[in-house]
Amino acid sequence: MALTTEQLKSMHWSEILAERIISEKKPPFVVTSGITTSGPTHLGTLCEFLFPNAIATQLRTRGFQADFYFIADIYDAFDSVPISMMKYESTLTPHLGKPLCDVPDPLGCCNSFGDHYLNETRRIMERFNVHPKIVRAVDVYKEGRFDELARFFLANEEKVKRVVAESSMRELPEWWSPLMPICQNCGRIATTRVTAHGNDWYEYKCDRDVEYTKGCGFSGRNKLSDHVYKLTWRLHWPAWMVVFNTSVEGAGVDHHTRGGSWDTCTAIFKEIFQREPPIGYKFGFILLQGKKYSKSKGVGMGVTDLLELMPPELITYSLIKPDLQENKDVDPTGVKLMNLYEDFQRAAKLSEEENTDVSRAEHKKIIAFRLSTGGKINWKASFADILMYYQLYRDWSKVAERSGDPEGTNYLRPFIEKWVSREFAPEEYRFSFNPTTISKNIAAVRAFAEKLTDSMDAVTIHNLVFSVANENGIQPSELFTTLYTALLGKEKGPRMGKLVEAIGIAKVKETLERVSRG
Ligand SMILES: [Zn+2]
Ligand SMILES: [Zn+2]
């Protein structure tokens, strides 16, 4: 089905990709993605499971079988000690250059260093309610599922080398080989090179210096069927797409630059496998408060920290809603987070209304909301209200009662507590009930107090500030400031109508009369 430009503009990116997969590939569809499990799960890792999961969901919604394989590149070389493991540096350093799955877990809780981080990612995926088929690359190699491709690459080595060199726009060393042997003496994969090979055997020397480690000097010989090799990255990627029969796979923009690994991938498919490559898509960077994550610096917040500050579905929503290629800025602080909550709740409402006459932006919101939640929101009261009640009462049973949404309040409670304790609430929402004697605008404040009646709702109260200010010949903003000072002891606060309602009209009347007595 060919879609018109107008139709495409109205669709969410996950819908566009799903339609394209259905028209270009054959079911059952396979969505793949992968990460190297060499350090803590960071925001970029989220894209590697949230985006493919969204695509698989769209395909299933359209009645097709779609499998999502998440491949952990745990057979890659351990090339640096992450910041968070620096205290184990002396234990870990001797293992540099070995596959991640052969490095012991210094914490002792997992089968290996690589598994330690894979398990962390596993737990995080569960929090996000994403359940792919998780594959450890080493297991696939050990099962021999790459052997046939390895044999094929060895048999066509010259041509493969040329395609890799051309597509990556770089010169390859004379010793370049499709294979990365694992040294049978020291266990390293980063320091070996193939010196000779036949169809299903190879000889290697472990003598390379890769700056962070050096080879041991050993020379050895293995058969492919010993399963102690890995394909070099530029071949490993297209090879796994053959092994898993991938229909679609995405990667960050850094893999999609000219000469990047996606270029090699498509070239290998076209020139070596002589078939069409899977559909590729690229996604932008994820920034945290405008900054790019840096593995080497370990800068910023990990996903685990972020999950203490905001519910996973809200993170998913914020990453899935924008255009795929856009850089996404995650900001769990202040007004930005409050706006995100508000936007999310608006999306929930739109989704529930099932109105077909919605704008393009609204449609994309609805899709992002459904993909993030399965269509159900875990709280009904507004985040701003719950936050306000919490600041006012510091008593969750009272907050639950006043919000009229005990379940939702209970759900948001840990996030709000953490958020407030880290002082991420915006200035207007950092307050407590703190009656303070005022010396200005006394007449207006007293008039306001007198006119307040029990039957008034938040909007009426808000409007009352304007009319009283006018009657008393002062700017409304000035009366707002004085009222906040009188009630909270500071010049700013949450929306006045809501605040007065929350404190209680009788209590506000009594307080204002008292603090304006002079
Ligand atoms: Zn562990
Ligand atoms: Zn060695």
Can you give me a brief rundown of this structure?
Among the domains are: 13-146 and 239-286, Rossmann fold, CATH 3.40.50; 179-231; 431-518, Arc Repressor Mutant, subunit A (Orthogonal Bundle). Helices cover 48% and strands 12% of the residues.
Average pLDDT score: 95
Q: What is the count of β-strands?
A: 13
Head-to-tail CA distance between termini? 76 Å
Which fold name fills CATH's third level, the topology of the domain at 13-146 and 239-286? Answer: Rossmann fold
Task: Give an overview of the whole structure.
With 518 residues, the protein is α/β, with parallel strands linked by helices. Among the domains are: 13-146 and 239-286, HUPs (Rossmann fold, 3-Layer(aba) Sandwich), CATH 3.40.50; 179-231; 431-518, Arc Repressor Mutant, subunit A, CATH 1.10.10.350. 48% of the residues lie in helices and 12% in strands. It is built from 22 helices and 13 strands. It has helices at 5-10, 13-24, 43-61, 89-92, 113-127, 137-142, 147-155, 157-168, 233-243, 261-273, 303-309, 312-320, 334-353, 360-373, 383-393, 396-403, 406-421, 442-451, 458-471, 476-488, 496-503, 505-515, and strands at 29-36, 66-73, 133-136, 179-181, 192-197, 201-206, 219-223, 229-231, 248-252, 279-283, 286-288, 291-292, 328-330. The strands form four sheets. Strands 3-2-1-9-10 form a five-stranded parallel β-sheet. Strands 5-6-7 form a three-stranded antiparallel β-sheet, with no helix packed on it. A three-stranded mixed β-sheet has the order 12-11-13, with helices on one face. A hairpin with a 3-residue loop joins strand 5 (192-197) and strand 6 (201-206). Helix 16 (396-403) crosses helix 17 (406-421), helix 19 (458-471) packs across helix 20 (476-488) and helix 19 (458-471) packs across helix 21. The longest helix has 20 residues, at 334-353. It is elongated and about 95 Å long. The N and C termini lie far apart (76 Å). The relative contact order is 0.08. The model has no long low-confidence stretch (mean pLDDT 95). Residues 183, 185-186, 188, 206, 215-216, 218 line the site of one zinc ion (ZN).
